[in-house]
Design goal:
The chain is 25% helix and 36% strand. It has five helices and 19 strands. Helix 2 (115-138) packs antiparallel against helix 3 (146-173).
Length: 355
């Protein structure tokens, strides 16, 4: 290994030291040449605007509590018809929109019982009655077996009647007959298709008299009485308001005493109008808005509902009193959509601050 002279090593180290010192000086001079950055000026925050709460003045006027609901125009007389037996459709005699008369056959099933069977049973009954009459003419009323012979003949008549009734019931179960004059609103039958007993397949209605039908909640029905006046208007024409009354309430809210099972199933509220529906622009199935006034008071103090505060059942308001405010407990009466009756705690003209 070759060793450098001591003088050579010293010269090399001194050169490196001079180079580092020069480089450091250059860096420091560059930093000093850069201009100093000024601190940014903070953006001033706007003064917060404290919102002014709305106020309400206690006034005297009318307060109305009312019930509003929707309804639809329907026939006064309408019935859902069905077969009383299951089977396969044999004939359909009408279609939707047809006019029918009471007693007219609408449809029947393949029953296995023909018109000949029915006629045969009718003849058997007539023969039994004739035999009874002939026996009464020919037998001696004082004969010992008179009562027995007459009883046998009477039983023959009764048996023939039972046979005829049985065939008639079998035929009626497989037929749909119009119970009144009307129009077929809907029919879900086609020949050779199977149907179930008591499944509604035909809707028959008398379109000569229409009214409004509504589904009202039980809690609201408890406040209604048959005969109460109403106001109604078409949903499509809110300006055409007309007067009417509640004609019928569903069971058990109505006045009817003789209620059929079918009436118990009908939960609709029926309304009649004083003006013909066509004069108001209403027709079958049109949507109607109905209003019933439940309570009305005039000349009472009132405030809008949003002015009254409620905490744990306590009702109170905040009254503006000069520059200050104070709480005042209040008692309320009837409550309408936009007005609440004030019965105690305030006087007319006081200013109330909203929550």
């Amino acid at each position: 290994m070759v060793h450098q002279p001591e003088s050579a090593r010293s010269t090399s180290f001194a050169g490196r030291l001079v180079l580092l010192v020069a480089l450091a000086a250059f860096v420091l001079s560059g930093c000093a040449a850069q201009p100093s950055q000024e601190e940014p000026t903070p953006t001033p925050l706007p003064t917060p605007i404290i919102p002014t709460k709305p106020t309400y003045t206690v006034q005297t006027g009318e307060v109305v509590r009312k019930l509003e609901f929707s309804g639809r125009v329907v026939p006064v007389v309408q019935e859902e018809l069905f077969f009383k037996a299951s089977g396969r459709v044999d004939n359909v005699y009408v279609k939707k929109g047809d006019q029918v008369t009471a007693g007219q056959l609408i449809a029947d099933l393949e029953s296995g019982t023909s018109a000949l069977d029915l006629r045969r049973a009718e003849i058997q009954l007539e023969l039994a009655k004739l035999d009874l009459q002939q026996t009464e003419l020919n037998i001696n009323k004082y004969a010992k077996d008179y009562d027995i012979i007459m009883a046998r003949q009477q039983y023959q008549v009764e048996l023939a009647q039972l046979s005829l009734d049985e065939i008639k019931a079998r035929v009626e179960a497989t037929q749909i007959v119009a119970p009144f004059d009307g129009t077929i609103l809907s029919i879900f039958l086609s020949e050779s298709t199977a149907v179930e007993a008591y499944k509604e397949v035909v809707t028959l209605a008398n379109l000569s008299e229409l009214e409004i039908s509504s589904d009202v909640a039980d809690t609201d029905l408890a406040e209604l009485v048959e005969g109460m006046p109403v106001q109604a208007w078409p949903v499509s024409s809110p300006g055409k308001v007309t007067e009417g009354k509640l004609r019928k309430l569903p069971y058990p809210y109505g006045k009817a005493t003789d209620v059929k099972e079918s009436d118990k199933e009908d939960k609709s509220t029926r309304i009649t109008l004083n003006t013909p529906l066509e004069d108001v622009g209403l027709g079958l199935s049109d949507l109607v808005r109905v209003v019933v006034v439940l309570e009305k008071k005039e000349g009472v103090l009132w405030l809008p509902p949003q002015a009254i505060r409620n905490f744990e059942g306590r009702k109170f308001v905040v009254v503006q009193d000069g520059e200050g405010q104070r709480r005042v407990d209040v008692k309320v009466g009837i409550t309408g959509d936009d007005r609440v009756e004030i019965t105690e705690g305030l006087t007319e003209g006081q200013v109330v601050v909203a929550p």
